TrEMBL record:
The lineage of its organism: Eukaryota, Viridiplantae, Streptophyta, Embryophyta, Tracheophyta. Belongs to the CBF/MAK21 family. Residues 405-414, 827-846 have a biased composition (Basic residues). The keyword Ion transport does not apply. It comes from Rubus argutus (Southern blackberry). Residues 415-436 have a biased composition (Basic and acidic residues). GO terms for molecular function: chromatin binding. PANTHER family: NUCLEOLAR COMPLEX PROTEIN 3, NUCLEOLAR COMPLEX PROTEIN 3 HOMOLOG. This is Nucleolar complex protein 3 homolog. One of its GO terms (biological process) is DNA replication initiation.
Amino acid sequence: MRGKKKIILPPQLPPDLSEDEIEVSDEDKDFVKENRDYAGFLSKLDTKSITKHVTRVADVKEDTLEALYEQRRRKSSQKEKEESGIEVDPVDALPIKDFSGNLHYLTVPKKSKAFENDLEGTGQDGEDDPADKGIVKLTKAERRAKLKKLKKEAKKQGKDSATPEVEVEPTPQAAVLAEVKEDLTAEEASESKKHKLAELGIALLADPEANIKSLKDMLQICKDRDHSIVKLGLLSLLAVFKDLIPGYRIRLPTEKELEMKVSKDVKKMRLYESTLLSTYKAYLQKLAALEKQPSFQHVAFRCICTLLDAVPYFNFRESLLGIVIRNISSSDDVVRKLCCSTVKSLFTNEGKHGGEATVDAVRLIADYVKTRNCQLHPDSIEVFLSLSFYEDLGRAAKQDDKNKAKNKRSKKRKDHEDPRQMKENDKKRSRQESLMKTREEVAADYKAVAYTPDVLERRRMQTETLSAVFETYFRILKHTMQSSAARSEANSSLSISASEPYPLLAPCLKGLGKFSHLIDIDFMSDLINSLRKLASGGGDTEKTSEKCSKCLTVSERLQCCIVAFKVMKSNLDALNVDLQDFFVQLYNIILEYRPGRDQGEVLAEALKIMLCEDRQHDMQKAAAFVKRLATFSLCFGSAESMAALVTLKHLLLKNVKCRNLLENDAGGGSVSGLIAKYHPEASDPNLSGALASVLWELNLLSKHYHPGVSSMISSISSMNTAHQNQVYLSIITPQQAFMDFSLDRPESFKPNGDIKKSNNKRKRGTGSSISSGIELSEDAISIDENEVKKKLSAHFMLLHDIKENQRLRAELERTTSSIQLYEDYKKQKKSAKKPQTKKSKILTVE
């Protein structure tokens, strides 16, 4: 089928121009005059017939021709509108008001395309304008007239546009608007970045393999100048990595593996793993750089600790562990607690990493203690208390060895059988061998995939961790012994605070007490000797021990005694050591105890382990401790006195002859030892002669304000008679008594409201007990409150003055001692200079 033919309209006729508008040059006029014969036919032309001939269209109806002409007119009118349109800057669109009140609008007409084309094509006669297609070419005169008109219009437009620019001046409102626009753009930019982070994270979690490259975009956002956006980016990347990291350690392919031909899925997986690993490495480097900046420190450590806790088996674990353990003793409480909790979770959850992370962490902590010379925060060593060691790891290996030996014996027996039976059982053996091979292959594959290592591997890791832990503990003990001896010799006259130089001793002793059953027997004797020296103060002689005892607190010395007894209990068969020195130290430490300064729980534990759980006690020693505990319970609160009385009752139940101390004879107990007189100031319990004394303290303790203490004293004083609570009180340990009767628990103290019978017996003749109680209450009501306040204020002022006097005396003693040291130093300098002067004189004489 042929397509319809297009109707081509004739070109538009040139516009009619008046004679005034036509400009003819003189050259043209001269040419026409000279050549009239050639130009005479122009006057005889019939213009009407020419226009009819030009405008006719063959084989077209009049209606269609009219429609086509109308379309052409519409297009031309639209072009004229576009060309004559006004182009105005939106900023200058507002009117300007002058001083007279008139409004001036800025209007600048657009430059027409025809004008631009005419300017470009001036002087070129043969080129046509693209806008004038379908139009008859203009003559030279018409072109010149057009150009002149357009130049005049351009000059007018330039003048009009130049005038408002001079009039407009920048106002302060414009500057404020510019600042507001900048703020709005910054807020919009931050919001857009937040939305972008959310979108990237959601896309990654939805399809990680397809959108793995967006991790780099998220990491790029973390380099922003805005701190809030950086923190959001770090936390969002943390959540994404926790979800995306696989359950295995990524191994990048080698060069040979990269050269091999693989499938598309393998290539895709390699690309995914390599991009994940590279971005994870860059993320860790970013965190390591930001953890040194105070503004990003908490966020960076939160990300590091959560990653190490969530994926301890993944790549770059060593770098994370190094950062955490380097800041395990940080001065910032938040950072230190985060690091310690992360390390504790590593020790408790060994199933995630198979025990490798624990070995690395313990080694790093041991090296850190060594480099810092044992001057760390106690929390850095208390982490070791979360470790768990298995003693039954060697049994499985022994059972495997026994099973192998049995299999070898059975094989030997089968070799000695008859050849007939061998032929019959060949088929069964082949089946069994094939089954055994498949089982071994399956077991090997399972071991390669499973997190839990072999028994031998676990034993190796456990021995390494134990050696590192005990190495740190022994280093701390050695450091305390050396430094205490040095301080006691250098500063014998100065009083030194005990808690400053040994921050790691208390957690070290706790760890030794917990893992005492795992210590090697070869180190037992050295350990007990060092503990004995520390408990006595760090010196062998009495003078040095008295000086060094100021360097250690009472609770630390008590912990040394506790650790020694725990070591002895766990290795009773292997060791044969006399612990008499520790009893002597406990006997002397009881008097040095102060409730506000020292820990009562440690004292109760020492009483339980050393006195209650010990099987054999000398009668003199037991009596000395009974007497010392009775005097101790008089001086302190209900919790300490209750723990001491429970121990006292336990000693009296064990040693029947010590109950003679309960007698009230004037000359002391009926059973006296080698020492006939009691010496309360003796340092050795065996030389105190406590059997010659009487427990007169019980009479005073029976009037104790706490009902539990008074009931305990009544049960002790009536040891021979049966008591209702006797079985219960004998079962209670000193630790339980201390915890139950401490003032932290308000339930433990319930004072009785009844009046005691002893007061009623004294007032037989005066009247009934009710009347006496009423009189007391009346007297209490009649007391003036102002007088009581004055007396109390005077009393407390006196106590304050006493404390101030003590403080000033201590300062005076320090200054005098420092002056004496300075004078001794001067004397030593003078004595060193004298022989030099003598030598110089001898040389001058010669």
